[in-house]
Amino acid sequence: EVQLLESGGGLVQPGGSLTLSCAASGFTFSSYVMNWVRQAPGKGLEWVSTIGIGGNTYYADSVKGRFTISRDNSQNTLYLQMDSLRAEDTAVYSCAKDIVASLAPDYWGQGTLVTVSS
Amino acid sequence: DIVITQTPLSSPVTLGQPASISCRSNQSLVHSDGNTYLSWLQQRPGQPPRLLIYKISNRFSGVPDRFSGSGAGTDFTLKISRVEAEDVGVYYCMQTARYSRSFGQGTKLEIK
Fold first, then answer.
1. What are the backbone dihedrals phi and psi of residue A114, each rounded to the nearest 5 degrees, phi first?
2. Beta-carbon contacts of residue A86 (< 8 Å; ≥ 6 apart)
3. Is B36's pLDDT higher than 90?
4. What count of other Cβ atoms lies within 10 Å of the Cβ of residue B61?
5. Which residues neighbour B46 within 8 Å (Cβ) at sequence distance 6 or greater?
6. Which of A11, A23, A94, B50 could be joined to A111 by an S-S link, Cβ 3.0–4.6 Å?
7. Touching check for B99 and chain A: CB below 8 Å?
8. Binning pLDDT at 50, 70 and 90, where does residue B99 land?
9. Among A51, A41, A31, which residue's Cα sits nearest to residue A89?
10. CB contact under 8 A, A108 and B49
11. With 90 as the cut, is the pLDDT of residue B62 above it?
12. With 90 as the cut, is the pLDDT of residue A72 above it?
């Protein structure tokens, strides 16, 4: 059974940093494109970042230069390092895996809440 | 960047009746590999998103056949042939044709 479990969310002050983790199980982690997607309270889905099988990384303009996506295939874990956090980064952050060769996110975690506030 | 516009933003539907959601892109979603990467996801209240359709019209595993997707280029449609109570939620289209992915604003499906 595919499982994605996010952790690391919490309350952080504006300008602060936080690292999110996504522990994956039930599939061959190294063979899949992985994503971070966020959802601000009461709002729609917003794509944040994607990392390819070979480690290529892609970011939304809203987080480029502040967030870093990475993966540790030996630990089956996806990360999102978030720096220079702003109030508008407040959201539930979820990780999701893509279907092989179909560029669609088929399994999602429950998400972890990040609140940026003083 | 690709901007996705969904219509309507809210759709009250009678149980057993059909529903249709439109998704329009400001650029073609045809990838350089020839495929069109447009997906539809459902988010029930309090739940993570669930993949319904990928590459325009391919139903994901376990998705009922009352859900269907169609379209090409920049215009796409999700249809539910007969709405059931469990279909209540927000529906999103998503493009992954470019390295920078994007979602539509979401369409809230509710029962009249």
1. -115, 125
2. A14, A116
3. yes
4. 7
5. none
6. A94
7. yes
8. confident
9. A41
10. yes
11. yes
12. yes
The DSSP code for A27 is: S
d(CA A93, CA B89): 19
Closest partner residue to B103 among A46, A61, A104, by Cβ? A46
Beta bridge partners of B14: none
- Report which residue type is found at B14: T
| Per-residue b or e along A94-108, where b marks 16 or more CB atoms closer than 10 Å to that residue's CB | bbbbbbeebbbbbbb
**B101 neighbourhood in chain A, CB within 8 Å:** 35, 47, 50, 58
How many angstroms separate the CA atoms of B5 and B27, rounded? 11
CB-based contact A69:A94 (threshold 8 Å) = no
Computed on alpha carbons and rounded to an integer, the radius of gyration of chain B in Å comes to 13
Buried b (16+ CB within 10 A) or exposed e, A48-83: bbbbeeeeeebbbeebeeebbbebeeeebbbbbebe
What's the average model confidence in pLDDT over A31-35?
A: 96
Percent of chain A whose predicted confidence (pLDDT) is above 90: 97
Q: How confident is the model at residue B1 (pLDDT cuts 50, 70, 90)?
A: confident
